[in-house]
Amino acid sequence: MPAPSLRADDWLSRAELSLFEGQPRGDRRHAERVAERLLARGHSDRLLLRAALLHDVGKAGRGIGLADRVLWVVAGRAAPRLRAALARRGGAFGALADHAAVGASRLRAAGVDPRVVALVAAHPLPGDEHRARLLAEADDSV
């Protein structure tokens, strides 16, 4: 069964939507697929879906190309030490390594709910650990 589709502007505030729309098309589509995966699994929690749509805003405008992304994922699975070394070199790999913190900072500056900010930073607030697991699982599955 195909995942239900959604429209980001039905879930996000104006400030959140601005950050969402500031991402490259591929990142926006990935975020939508993550949120759709959560919906398909029966999760309609607005906080969780907002975090899904915003979880990669820290990648926007940071010079991350497709080849960088592919190498990052492959290295993470096959050679974690190589990935860590690439991250220390900075550039696109450094941006990939710290995108969660950068995204959280951008969201915080925009006045986004601190629980969404914490989920995007991968440092959930007490009581949101289950949401963080659901988000990570959905992100890893699409």
Task: Note down, in words, how this protein is organized.
By secondary structure, the protein is an all-alpha fold. It has one domain. Helices cover 66% and strands 0% of the residues. The protein has helices spanning 14-21, 25-40, 46-54, 66-78, 80-88, 91-109, 114-120, 129-141. The longest helix has 19 residues, at 91-109. The model has no long low-confidence stretch (mean pLDDT 94).
Report the sheet-strand fraction. Answer: under 5%
Average predicted local confidence, pLDDT: 94
Q: What are the secondary-structure elements, in order, as H or E? A: HHHHHHHH
C-alpha Rg (nearest Å): 15 Å
Span from first to last CA? 15 Å
Quaternary structure: single chain
Q: What is the total domain count?
A: 1
Q: Tell me, briefly, the overall form.
A: globular
- Helical residues, percent: 55-70%
Low-confidence stretches: none
List the main descriptive attributes of the protein structure presented here.
142 residues; mainly alpha; 8 helices; 66% helix; 0% strand; globular
Provide a compact summary of the structure:
With 142 residues, this protein is mostly helical. The protein has helices at 14-21, 25-40, 46-54, 66-78, 80-88, 91-109, 114-120, 129-141.
Summarize the SSE layout with pairings.
Layout (H helix, E strand, L loop, with lengths): L13 H8 L3 H16 L5 H9 L11 H13 L1 H9 L2 H19 L4 H7 L8 H13 L1
